[in-house]
Design a protein that fits this description.
globular; single chain; about 55% helix; mainly alpha
Amino acid sequence: MADAYTDEINMHGGKSLARVSTIVLNQGRFFQRLRDGKTCTLDSFEAVLEWFSSPANWPGGTIPPAAADMLAHFATPVPAAAE
């Protein structure tokens, strides 16, 4: 998701991945840590999804189709296990 945002923002002046991490979570190395194989808390994951789900946070006020598809995937509830 961060890469999709970075690609989109680069077409409108650009921001580094660290800057995007700071904007989204106030943690400049957050996305780099994920790339390095680290994990995050559920609270951080939900905050990232919430932030990227707002069209107002994207350049031009529109979520690109690839990012919208990723967001839809994460928003799909997992079916309950059969009892």
